[in-house]
Amino acid sequence: MKITNVMGLPDALVKAIETNPHNEPGSLSATTLLKNTKQILLMERHWDELEEDVLDRFWALFGTAIHKMLESEGKDEFSEEQISFELDGIVVTGRIDNYNMKTGNITDYKSCSVYKIINQDFTDWRRQGLEYAWLLHKNGFLVKTCTFIAITKDHSMRKARHSSSYPKVPVYVYQFEVTEEGLTEIEAFMKGKIAECKKFADVADDDIPPCTMEERWESPTTYAVMKEGNKRAFKVLKSLAEAEKLAAEKGNGYSVETRPGEAKRCMDYCACNTFCNHYREHVAAVEAQEEVSW
After folding, report:
1. pTM
2. Closest to 260 measured CA to CA, from 291, 215, 229
């Protein structure tokens, strides 16, 4: 992967970015297994062709800095330790921020948007924690709990003062208990992802199934009933049939405008999107709609 520096930021920032492949041949990291199969395979196939700018990796650097500052290792703990275990012919690896052998607790530090906390969407963190717990369990360690300490990047004290539903402080703790059921669940999840990666390992890029809407962070396509001469929609509906019916009922001067959903992860947070046919189709649809709007 090539790191660009469009804004001409200090060389120290460029040098601090890791540009080696995340996975060795025959291995997959716990964080990689959280990605969609298409993203995993495209990243692996096109690693030497990928480009990212320093600014695109800024928050990753921020997260690394947090890890370094908070890293501690007591007599019953180890930090930043990489562990591994083979599953279905693939070596699963994980680098754990901190594990306390006395309490059986895994601690992981995160940086995130405040809206993740507001939405209480921790599915990815729970899976990552369970993957780490599974790795430790396979290596003979007992894990009782996983604790994620999140520092929000965009917390607003003003909003915290004026909204009862807004987080009051920029730090949030998410914790859950590790159970046998959870370990069984995550092993099945990892087996399924490994099987998918093997199944599509030799097919063409465009033939790898696309990420799901949830994985793409995609909002649904909507249909706006527009009145001729007005910029604002008369009504926005989720169903094309309902929108067309309403436009017909309103009569002359009313039409239906399709507003494609935005796949935010594809557009802004996927390093291999230029090699993805779904992304290219999505961009083409968005650009076509923007031309119609103008």
Report:
1. 0.85
2. 291
Tell me, what DSSP letter sits at residue 194? H
How far apart are the C-alpha atoms of 110 and 126, rounded to whole Å?
A: 13
Residue from 41, 53, 62, 39 nearest 2 by CA: 53
Indicate the average pLDDT of the chain. Answer: 90
CA distances from 97 to 146, 164, 208, 232, 248 (A): 11, 32, 33, 49, 59
Model confidence at 173, pLDDT cuts 50, 70, 90, reads very high
- Give all domains of the chain, ordered by start, each with its CATH number: 2-207 (3.90.320.10), 213-293 (no CATH)
What does the buried/exposed string (b/e) look like for 33-54 if buried means 16 or more CB atoms within 10 Å of the residue's CB?
bbbbbbbbbbbbebbeebeeeb
Distance (Å, rounded) from C-alpha 108 to C-alpha 146? 8
CB-based burial, 280-292: b 16+ in 10 Å, e otherwise: eebbeebeeeeee
Amino acid at 130: L
